[in-house]
Write a structure and sequence with these properties.
By secondary structure, the chain is of the alpha+beta class. The chain has two domains: about 5-55 and about 145-315, D-amino Acid Aminotransferase, Chain A, domain 1 (2-Layer Sandwich), CATH 3.30.470.20; about 60-140, 2-Layer Sandwich (Dna Ligase, domain 1). Helix content is about 30%, strand content about 25%. The chain has eleven helices and 13 strands. It has helices at about 5-10, 20-30, 35-40, 40-50, 65-75, 115-125, 235-240, 245, 275-280, 285-295, 305-315; strands at about 60, 80-85, 95-100, 105, 110-115, 140, 160-165, 170-180, 195-200, 205-210, 215, 250-260, 265-270. The strands form two sheets. A seven-stranded antiparallel β-sheet has the order 11-10-9-8-7-12-13. α5 runs antiparallel to α6 and α7 (about 235-240) crosses α11. The mean pLDDT is about 95.
Length: about 325
């Protein structure tokens, strides 16, 4: 939709560019002193738990090299889990283990990961190989989300996640990211996952893209993407909306997953959410952000009230 349009035409359509996002949205509404809470996934998880926001269960934290040596024994009876850097970004360093074959661990692709390889991955994580700015890090070990049957055929091996952009707690745009073989089972658009724009009012799929190009079917499963509707949609939006009270950040990306047993869970937060969500939706962010800002300035609202407003007044922009 946007690829061949002129800059003037893009502005008229309300499409936000990188400079506008960085200056008018992030710098203007996200005080830097609040960044540490969202840049560190462990801090985010602990803060969410304090406020009663559901998150994937934390199994352990690997903070030092002597913890790395203890990993094989710690995970000896664990069939599945996710290891991720606390300060990672863009999906880097996330290792998803979905099963076992004797002493070996199995990735979602079926590839074997030995105990030595697992420890090496954890050691690299601690050394900052995957973290923002190469800083020393910690490796979180989380329970693997059992995703709902709703996504059968819509995702290849990995767990889909839902990105909701919120402006002072008002949901303004959303998409679901579906893993593919190209993305190695990870819901990361830069690695080849499919992004499906979602109607804020209903959770219904609007359009889908892979590598910024429109697609109608999942490249690996052949499933028609336009048929996808996210269940428990209001709960998803309200969970994302609560991220404002959690962080104080005015412009935020909330990533939510749907667990078969526990429902919507907050996966992580992003103070610098990317702009590919506009391509997935085929719409610009600008009019929605401005509408949310006007409503925010009119007075404080509860998460439920903010979601109701977004469904009624923002979804059609």
């Amino acid at each position: 939709m946007f690829g061949l349009a002129s800059p003037r035409r893009l502005r008229e359509r309300g499409v936000v560019g990188m400079n506008c996002r960085n200056v008018s949205y992030i710098a203007a509404h996200n005080p830097r002193k609040l960044y540490p809470l969202v840049d560190d996934k462990l801090k985010t998880k602990l803060a969410a738990l304090e406020q009663g926001i559901p998150v994937p269960r934390l199994l352990g934290v690997c903070r030092a090299q002597h913890h790395v040596r203890e990993l094989p024994e710690f995970l000896h009876d664990r069939e599945s889990f996710v290891m991720k850097p606390a300060q990672g970004s863009g999906g880097k360093g996330i290792l998803v283990i979905s099963g076992r074959d004797g002493e070996a661990f199995l990735k979602t692709s079926g590839k074997h990961v030995s105990a030595d390889e697992l420890c090496r991955h954890a050691s690299n994580t601690l050394a900052g190989l995957f973290s923002l700015g190469g800083r020393s890090d910690a490796a979180l070990i989380e329970e693997l989300v059992a995703f709902t049957d709703t996504f059968d055929g819509y995702s290849f091996e990995g767990v889909p996640d839902i990105r909701v952009i919120c402006v002072y707690g008002y949901p303004v745009m959303a998409m679901v990211r579906l893993s593919t073989e190209a993305s190695d089972g990870k819901a990361n658009l830069h690695q080849g996952a499919v992004g499906v724009g979602l109607d804020i009012a209903s959770g219904q799929a609007l359009r889908a893209v892979q590598h910024a190009r429109p697609v109608e079917r999942h490249p690996d499963t052949g499933r028609q993407l336009a048929d996808l509707v996210i269940p428990q949609w209001r709960e998803v939006l309200e969970l994302a909306s609560r991220s404002y009270e959690l962080t104080g950040l005015g412009y935020l990306g909330a990533d939510v997953v749907l667990d078969r047993n526990r429902g919507p869970l907050l996966l992580e937060l992003n103070a610098r959410p990317g702009l590919a969500i506009q391509v997935a939706n085929g719409r610009g962010l600008a009019p929605r952000v401005e509408r949310a800002l006007r409503e925010f300035r009119a007075g404080r609202r509860t998460p439920q009230q903010r979601v109701a407003f977004a469904v009624k007044h923002i979804a059609g922009l």
